[in-house]
Prior knowledge:
Strand content: under 5%
Distance between the termini: 143 Å
Radius of gyration: 57 Å
Structural class: mainly alpha
Strand order of the largest sheet: 1-2
Helix content: 55-70%
Low-confidence stretches: 1-7, 203-221
Largest sheet: 2 strands, antiparallel
Shape: elongated
Amino acid sequence: MKLNMAEEEDYMSDSFINVQEDIRPGLPMLRQIREARRKEEKQQEANLKNRQKSLKEEEQERRDIGLKNALGCENKGFALLQKMGYKSGQALGKSGGGIVEPIPLNIKTGKSGIGHEASLKRKAEEKLESYRKKIHMKNQAEEKAAEQFRLQCFLSIRMRLKNKQDEMKLEGDLRRSQRACQQLDAQKNIQVPREAWYWLRLEEETEEDEEEKEQDEDEYKSEDLSVLEKLQILTSYLREEHLYCIWCGTAYEDKEDISSNCPGPTSADHD
């Protein structure tokens, strides 16, 4: 029993801890062969590419040399032209009005059909032109919108200024009418204005009982009237009561005089 236990290996020994790699003799050889084949294939591909590139370069060089050199007598077409009287350097045609240099050679390297490149170029130009038109129309629309916005702002500001000026002018005319009304009423010994706002300001206010301050339904307060309405009412009062026109700055003798010599009851009539 003890012998059998001694023969058994300890599970904590190096034989269990250190796992050795597979060292079969055929495995490294297979790896080397595969690597060599891969390198050879890459080299063949590189040689093929270099060979194709060199062929293209040689073909281009031969073509350039042929195009640069003029045709000689060994060319059958040139020989026929010489027999018909053509000399090198002359223009073609009976009258000598043709071309001097041969038609240039355009090399086609792609696989597309004849005219395909021109079609693609035309389509690209049409697309570019359409894009430019859209951008131009967009810019025009933006400029027009900006111009309309600036015009609206200008008109709005101008209208506000005009309204403000008109309002200030009406207020000035109303104060002038109130001042004239107060002076003319004083000349007639009128102590109290017909309406409180007829005068610019009151020196003394009379006290009245509540019963005497009742007003008709048709009568309105000054707070309910605009400056223009007050001015119209007051100028009518001055014309009827005092025969006076604030626009003329004149007190007329009678109604016939004011109707004949005054242009009218409004400021527009005196412009």
